[in-house]
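Raw record, unedited: Junctional adhesion molecule 2b
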Amino acid sequence: MTSMKMLALPLLITLLHSPICLSVTVSSSKPKVEVHEHTDAVLACEFKTEKDQSPRIEWKTTGKEAAFVYFNKKFSGRYVGRAKIEGATLTIHSVTQKDSGQYRCEVTASQDRVNFGEVTVTLNVLVPPHVPSCEVPSSVFVGSDLELHCKDKLSVPPATYRWYKDSKALTATADTPYSIDINKGTLKFKSVSKTDAGMYRCESSNSVGAPKSCVAQQLKVTEYPLNMTILIAGAAGFLMLLTFCCICVCVCRRRGCCRKHKKTKSTKSFNPPPPPPPIRNLKNYKQTHSFMI
């Protein structure tokens, strides 16, 4: 047993002092980056090599619009003049929403046994609220249903919405005649009344910047010009009259066709009168004609 321990000790020392694998290693101290719009974004990429002291460094965007960011020690595309490299760390100046996405740092060390390594960094550019688009009709009839819309498509993260009537915030409860969806920005009325008339505006907000509001718009609620019962009765009477007229026209046309058919049939069956009977008494015939001469 003692001899086995004596043999294992030198072997363990040899393994500790010998490299396990000659390879490049690539990592990121911050794989997810969130920055505000128009600020600088730092995409960290750290690497280690065993032999190669000047490895090739590349940055690429991934996804459907994959493209080079940094290749052959040069920037390309929209990154020219607005990005820099320090070691393998990429810094993009004055980022916008178009810069959001996934970036891949690739390091190639040709002198290492395992000569390639990569790491992915996700960039999310935060955008404050913009002035939302508000859809408020100018007028509606009493008793009709109504839906107002509000949308801010540019804010990141997505905005939530609040509706105001006559500069007072609306809060939907079980007793209110309307409902509000703060995520979709809709304000719904099941049956509009005269008291719902007023000035309406919508406000969008998120965690990045100050809320933004659209210009207030006037909503008018008016009565129907005629009683609905009279309108429905008039429409029903008109339909009945129209149906009666159609039936009369069809009947008249059928009768006219029958008369024409009968007349044509009697004309075709007409036979001319028979010729006069032949003269049987020739003697009397001659005497009669000689007397006449």
